[in-house]
Specification:
Strand order of the largest sheet: 3-2-1-4-6-5
CATH architecture: 3-Layer(aba) Sandwich
Number of strands: 6
Low-confidence stretches: none
CATH class: Alpha Beta
Number of helices: 7
Order of helices and strands: EHHEHHEHEHEEH
CATH topology: Rossmann fold
Largest sheet: 6 strands, mixed
Number of domains: 1
Radius of gyration: 14 Å
Shape: globular
């Protein structure tokens, strides 16, 4: 059995799927690929908190789908660690915690649509973790 790709979703990706709905969200394909046994979706407590906070404010009716997405993911404890990459110092504190959690747990890919904060890190690896936009991840060959 081949090793599953470990994919960590940022809160904006999780929020986007819940906000748009399964039928309209291209990023929901990540969960569909997971059902094929190719990858495993990971989140952290902070990712879930941020997604819930935004859904409650912007589309409260989507909380049920958000709960379903979280239940279909492995939720990890947040890890605050110093990563020796100077580019990470530019990130807001919550983003540093979320990314360091993904790196600490040796995720293969960190998927984020947050271009404001992560644009300078797209296509780069922090230790074993490659940072990609959702569309770039979905365009990978599996």
């Amino acid at each position: 059995m081949e090793k599953k790709i470990k994919v960590f979703l940022d809160s904006n990706v999780l929020f986007s799927i819940a906000h748009s709905g399964k039928e309209k969200s291209r990023s929901f394909l990540i969960y569909e690929i997971q059902t094929l046994g190719i990858l495993r979706v990971y989140l952290s407590n902070l990712v879930c908190e941020e997604a819930f906070s935004n859904i409650r404010r912007k589309k409260p009716g989507a909380e049920e789908l958000l709960n379903e997405l979280i239940a279909g993911s492995k939720v990890l404890e947040d890890i605050v660690t110093h990563l020796s990459n100077p580019a990470l110092g530019k990130l807001p504190q919550n983003d540093q915690v979320i990314l360091s959690t993904a790196v600490y747990h040796k995720m293969d890919v960190f998927v984020t649509g947050n271009e404001n904060h992560f644009k300078h890190l797209y296509h780069k690896k922090i230790l074993d973790t490659l940072i990609l936009k959702p569309v770039e991840f979905l365009n990978m060959k599996f």
